[in-house]
Amino acid sequence: MFKMDEEFTESDLKQAVSLAEKNYQIKKDDYLRLDVFTNGGERIVDPNFELRQGMTNQNMQNTRQFVYLVRQDGLVKLPMVGDVDILGMTIYEAEQKLQALYSEHYIDPYVVLRYENRRVIVLGANGGQVIPLVNENTSLIEVIALSGGINQGAKSQTVRLIRGNLNNPEVYMIDLSTVSGMRSSIVRLEPGDIVYIDPWRRVWIESLRDVSPILSLITGVITLALVVKSINLN
């Protein structure tokens, strides 16, 4: 069982997942959930529930969520604004575009767009990636292959499968450098799973990167001193 340590905490995990999702670019066949709020999204905060007072059951039903498909032509049909091309945009970029479109209908709209596909997030050596689950039987090894495989910067012997609530997840350690570990890799992944591939940490390279500005400064000073000395000798 994997436990978060001081170098990689539960907060780091949540932040990495959030960053990976934000960097995801919208693709064909994606399902998106859309929320549009007026007045800069004041109803989202509404700490005293003043804006919800008087809402009837019918009002509550009208707030149910819908998902919208990005069609093969790259367009998604959305209420009020019709077909919109957001193919290839990040979620943030799409939100900005939709806010501009909805501003023709509402005062100071605040758009929240979420990616609703069944997906797995891969973190660690392969960078933050969102991998859609194209069928019910997608395995761990297939997801790793789709994310770029195990390269020279990745530790095949320490792959973690993180499942469940991030506040108290189940974490499984898998060693892909062994036959038994490879057998484990056929495990079927579930939507929301996180795969973390440990990167090799090259301490000497990181240390050299840290001291390189100081070395450059020392080299510059020595070079200047040698030039001055050479001029004086002449």
TrEMBL record:
Topology in the lipid bilayer: Multi-pass membrane protein
UniProt keyword ATP-binding present: no
InterPro entries: Poly_export, Poly_export_N, SLBB_dom
Any one Pfam family match given in the protein's UniProt record, by short name: Poly_export
Coiled coil: none
Localisation: Cell outer membrane
Stretches assigned to the SLBB domain: 127-197
Entry keyword set: Cell outer membrane, Ion transport, Lipoprotein, Membrane, Palmitate, Polysaccharide transport, Porin, Signal, Sugar transport, Transmembrane, Transmembrane beta strand, Transport
Aminoacyl-tRNA synthetase found in the keyword field: no
Domain named Polysaccharide export protein N-terminal: residues: 21-113
Similarity field: Belongs to the BexD/CtrA/VexA family.
PANTHER family recorded: POLYSACCHARIDE EXPORT PROTEIN GFCE-RELATED
The protein, known as: Polysaccharide biosynthesis/export family protein
Protein source organism: Imperialibacter roseus
